Amino acid sequence: VQLQASGGGLVQAGGSLRLSCAASGRTFSSYTVGWFRQAPGKEREFVARIRRPGGSTFYADSVKGRFTISRDSAKNTVNLEMTSLKPEDTAVYYCAATTLICSNYVTGGCYDSWGQGTQVTVSS
């Protein structure tokens, strides 16, 4: 499946952004989808995922309570609603998808399709 991430931008601390990951070629509902981010000079880190089937969600502790991952089946997208943004949320955000069954979905190695990334910058 081909993925296209969008929605990044510049926002002040405390603000909100909505990222979207659009899938082409396949129905997104058959994939587990994750969001990852990578800040300059840091390793890529897991942010959130939504499983298939069932749609259970899981978040990194650093974003729990502030970010929400969800599916929009009508648009064939997975969205990441980000609120109460902090400067430390600044990073390139990537969406990823997999049909594999993994012990967990917080490692990038479980995903076989990746979007191109969208920049999120949070100013203090």
Please characterize this protein's 3D structure.
- With 124 residues, this protein is an all-beta fold.
- It has strands spanning 2-6, 9-12, 17-24, 32-38, 45-50, 57-59, 67-72, 77-82, 91-98, 113-114, 118-123.
- Strands 2, 4, 5, 6, 9, 10 and 11 form a 7-stranded mixed beta sheet that branches. The chain has a 4-stranded antiparallel beta sheet with strand order 1-3-8-7, with no helix packed on it.
- It is globular.
**Helical proportion?**
under 10%
Question: Taking Cα atoms only, what radius of gyration do you get, to the nearest Å?
Answer: 13 Å
Overall structural class, as computed from helix and strand content, comes to mainly beta
- The number of distinct β-strands equals 11
Short description:
The chain has 124 residues and is mostly beta strands. The protein contains no helices and 11 strands.
Keywords:
124 residues, globular, mainly beta, four-stranded antiparallel beta sheet
List the helices and strands and how they pair.
Layout: E1 2-6, E2 9-12, E3 17-24, E4 32-38, E5 45-50, E6 57-59, E7 67-72, E8 77-82, E9 91-98, E10 113-114, E11 118-123
Parallel strand pairs: 2-11
Antiparallel strand pairs: 1-3, 3-8, 4-5, 4-9, 5-6, 7-8, 9-10, 9-11
